[in-house]
Structure to design on (914 residues):
């Protein structure tokens, strides 16, 4: 799942590149509907989704999890959106949402101008104004949104607003009458279009308080609106009859109930027995039921590859992982096949951060010490440990509570102990895991992490270890001058044209042992008999595309 | 005509019958109206038997309690031999992951954990006798180590309860006044919380931060928590007994002789609490082992990767449909242990409390 902090989006190809080339009018306001709805599609009805983990909040101004994105992604439509109704990489294409078209780019790539469609309304009937957009962005910074750094770090005046030195974000100007929103950047930053396709940047009515509305969510402008919410337990979406964004799918179901139950096995059993309708793809089907699902419900189960990476990070500023050899020893000792088995086989072993679906992915053969699909190289690992002089050092390993992440933690801790560390586990509740390890006061030694693409750009993954991005996602406090400068140079270019350089950067970081990536996950698409399986879309951006779901 | 039991024809007839008490212990049944010759009348006094010897004699005659005592001891010994089993039979330590390893099943090499994540079931051989968990750990080894953990925590918690519960009961019951005003509400407060909820709350909080130098994943954390939540369960009855004892003549006599309060408590009152405390020991041990299992099952007790019967039951739930033994076997060990302790505890109570064995036939 998308973990917290989802950065840019926008397919670099369709979004950034197009914008960078100044193709302002591509994708006109009349872009054809991307709804998966087919003639004769059934409308109406209520379904239940079961999920093992709740979003941090129903408020898109705070939350940045895959679970949350599935939900408020259909409540809050931003200026741009990712194409809905398309399974696979086609779903990364950016198209106009509330904006009439993709933005015009001027001032050497530093100014983006959006024009709002006319006659748009929120679900409560309030007209949508251009000035609601900067209000939403200011609210994101205030709350703060977990990806707020992507606003404050790249838009002029964002930092001043975040620091309380300005009352507004000076880099954004609006004209309500004309419906224009002008965004001035500090420097050219092509992925800004991706950011404006994230629901967190969607406008909100000016009456929306600048605080986390976890129990109610915000008034939105999407095809659904919030119904009853019991934070952490149940989230209900009901159809928004006032939804009037041209070209965007309206959804088929009347009501979608999202129930949270941390017992993932029970969740899977409910879907298998048709007591619930959809297994949330943010969780893995437990191995104990996977065979049963394959044999009894093979026609309503499909693993879908996603652009995601699972990894362990190292606290490089403190013992023992401030030592290069100690980090490399761990890389040599990790058996990626074992971690794949813990994930019911749903993880394809790979030592790289950039997944295969993203430009810049490297071949498996470039992994050091041993093949990702082969056994660990314990001989080299122990030699590296000897050289490190870190044998006997105490290590606290951080990991999540829910399966199989607890099992990843158990395995990793066992590997550290086999190398001679004195490793102990620190299991943190899943709902607060990333906020815990990201707290500036903690500075953990080592731990587990994952990342699901926000947009198909290698920057989205590699920025996790940027020492100058101002984000709290760099849990190991990596700050490498070469890494940072390369990152800052590459993100300004079309990733396809610099794919080899992205790959080199990834391998540089692997060899430096800044992270021990172990693979890329397939998400389960698992429905009940009631749902139309072929019509349902597992989007690489939204995971379950709620607008595609329909009853048989 | 109703015979006068106090008439001169001798004492009430007594007979010893086996299995008269609930625990199967022997008992004395006195039938009113029947007379027997007084064996002491002619000066033939039998040798005196102390209450502890008498209790031991009664306990020896309680075959049910003895059977369960042996069962419990077998469990304890098996758990104590866990390192031997791990090193010489299973050849794997309790926390060692072996996800990509293989094991011979019916002469065929089988993945300990299959590529799609399914662990091997019971092999009933030297390796993976009860199967593996999802991390490829030997469940038989973890079962025995888990038993050590559960029993150790139970024993430590029981020691905490006995020491501090007795102390609290003594102090509040003997001194009353300010001491009672301070300590009793604390015990009442702890008493008023459901133990599981209080235990989970404390366990969750302390598992993160630990207590001082004791880390959150230490086994002393759940032992400490269990001990604390059960202190009032002993402290309150002790207090009541001390309140009664302190008004007895022998205490008054000691006081008149100039003995200090502490000396009276330790040399006069405490010995009279011994049987009560002895009865509470097995009870508290059983409660402690059970509460540890609850807490560990809920993730607030023994922390990973250490095993206890509670964590093993919890881990096994994921496989309850395909391999129910993963949960059932540690569950059975837990049940047998607690049942044994309870039956033995009942036997001790019956042995120490002669009143529980005397029935007057009417």
């Amino acid at each position: 799942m998308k973990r917290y902090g989802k950065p840019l989006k926008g397919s670099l190809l369709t979004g950034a590149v197009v914008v960078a080339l100044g193709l302002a009018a591509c994708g006109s306001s009349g872009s054809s509907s991307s709804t998966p709805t087919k003639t004769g599609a059934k409308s109406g009805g209520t379904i239940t989704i079961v999920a093992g983990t709740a979003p941090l909040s129903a408020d898109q101004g705070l939350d940045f999890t895959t679970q949350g994105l599935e939900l408020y992604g259909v409540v809050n439509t931003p200026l741009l959106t990712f194409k809905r109704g398309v399974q696979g990489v086609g779903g990364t294409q950016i198209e106009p949402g509330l904006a009439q078209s993709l933005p015009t780019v001027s001032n050497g790539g530093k100014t983006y101008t959006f024009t709002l469609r006319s006659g748009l309304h929120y679900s409560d009937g309030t007209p949508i104004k251009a000035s609601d957009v900067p209000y939403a962005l200011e609210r994101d910074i205030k709350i703060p949104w977990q990806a707020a750094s992507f606003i404050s770090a790249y838009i002029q005046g964002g930092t001043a607003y975040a620091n309380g030195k300005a009352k507004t974000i000076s880099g954004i100007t609006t004209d309500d009458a004309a419906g224009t929103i002008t965004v001035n950047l500090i420097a050219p930053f092509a992925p800004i279009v991706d950011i404006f396709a994230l629901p967190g940047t969607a406008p909100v009515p000016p009456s929306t308080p600048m605080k986390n509305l976890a129990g109610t969510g915000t008034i939105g402008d999407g095809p659904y609106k919030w119904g009853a919410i019991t934070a952490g337990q149940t989230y209900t979406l009901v159809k928004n009859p006032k939804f009037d964004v041209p070209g965007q799918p309206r959804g088929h179901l009347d009501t979608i109930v999202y129930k949270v139950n941390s017992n993932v096995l029970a969740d899977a059993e409910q879907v298998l027995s048709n007591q619930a309708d959809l297994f949330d793809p943010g969780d893995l089907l437990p191995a104990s039921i996977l065979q049963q699902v394959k044999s009894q419900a093979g026609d309503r189960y499909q693993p879908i590859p996603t652009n995601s990476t699972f990894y362990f990070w190292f606290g490089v500023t403190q013992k023992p992982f401030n030592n290069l050899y100690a980090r490399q020893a761990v890389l040599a000792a990790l058996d990626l096949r074992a971690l794949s088995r813990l994930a019911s086989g749903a993880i394809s072993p790979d030592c790289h951060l950039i997944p295969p679906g993203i430009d810049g992915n490297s071949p498996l053969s470039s992994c050091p010490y041993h093949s990702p699909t082969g056994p660990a190289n314990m001989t080299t690992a122990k030699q590296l440990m000897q050289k490190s002089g870190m044998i006997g050092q105490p290590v606290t390993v951080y990991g999540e509570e829910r399966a199989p992440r607890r099992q990843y933690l158990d395995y990793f801790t066992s590997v550290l102990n086999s190398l001679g560390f004195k490793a102990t586990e620190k299991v943190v509740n899943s709902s607060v895991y990333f906020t815990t390890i990201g707290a500036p006061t903690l500075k953990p030694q080592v731990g587990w992490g994952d990342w699901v693409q926000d947009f198909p750009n290698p920057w989205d993954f590699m920025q996790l270890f940027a020492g100058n991005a101002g984000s709290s996602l760099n849990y190991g406090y990596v700050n490498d001058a070469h890494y940072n400068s390369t990152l800052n140079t590459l993100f300004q270019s079309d990733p396809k044209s610099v794919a080899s350089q992205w790959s080199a950067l990834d391998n540089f970081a692997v060899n430096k042992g800044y992270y021990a990536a172990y693979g890329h996950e397939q998400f389960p698409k698992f429905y009940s008999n009631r749902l139309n399986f072929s019509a349902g879309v597992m989007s690489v951006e939204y995971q379950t595309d709620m607008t595609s779901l329909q009853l048989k | 005509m109703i015979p006068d039991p106090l008439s001169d024809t001798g004492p009430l007839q007594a007979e010893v019958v086996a299995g008269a008490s609930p625990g199967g212990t022997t008992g004395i049944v006195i039938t009113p109206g029947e007379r027997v010759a007084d064996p002491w009348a002619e000066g033939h006094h039998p040798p005196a038997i102390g209450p502890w010897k008498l209790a031991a004699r009664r306990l020896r005659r309680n075959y049910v309690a003895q059977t369960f005592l042996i069962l419990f001891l077998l469990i304890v010994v098996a758990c104590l031999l866990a390192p031997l089993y791990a090193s010489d039979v299973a050849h794997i330590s309790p926390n060692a992951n072996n996800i990509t390893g293989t094991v011979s099943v019916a002469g065929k090499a089988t993945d300990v954990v299959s590529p799609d994540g399914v662990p091997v079931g019971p092999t009933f051989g030297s390796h993976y006798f009860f199967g593996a968990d999802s991390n490829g750990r030997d469940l038989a080894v973890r079962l025995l180590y888990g038993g050590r953990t559960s029993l150790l925590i139970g024993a430590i918690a029981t020691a905490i309860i006995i020491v501090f519960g007795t102390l609290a009961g003594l102090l509040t019951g003997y001194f009353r006044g300010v001491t009672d005003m301070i300590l009793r509400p604390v015990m009442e407060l702890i008493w008023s919380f459901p133990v599981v909820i209080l235990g989970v709350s404390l366990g969750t909080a302390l598992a993160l931060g630990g207590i001082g130098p004791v880390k959150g994943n230490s086994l002393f954390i759940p032992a400490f928590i269990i001990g604390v939540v059960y202190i009032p369960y002993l402290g309150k009855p002790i207090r009541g007994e001390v309140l009664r004892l302190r008004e007895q003549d022998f205490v008054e006599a000691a006081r008149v002789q100039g003995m200090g309060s502490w000396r009276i408590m330790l040399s006069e009152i405490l010995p009279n609490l011994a049987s009560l405390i002895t009865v509470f020991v097995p009870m508290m041990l059983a409660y402690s082992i059970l509460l540890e299992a609850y807490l560990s099952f809920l993730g607030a007790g023994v922390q990973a990767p250490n095993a206890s019967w509670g964590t093993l039951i919890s881990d096994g739930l994921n496989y309850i449909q395909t391999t129910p033994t993963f949960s059932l076997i540690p569950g059975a060990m837990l049940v047998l242990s607690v049942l044994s302790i309870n039956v033995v505890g009942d036997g001790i109570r019956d042995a120490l409390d002669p009143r529980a064995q005397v029935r007057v036939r009417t």
The radius of gyration of chain A is 23 Å. Residues 57 and 63 of chain A are 5 Å apart (CA to CA). The first strand of chain A starts at residue 46 and ends at 51. Residues 4-38 of chain A have pLDDT under 50 and may be disordered.
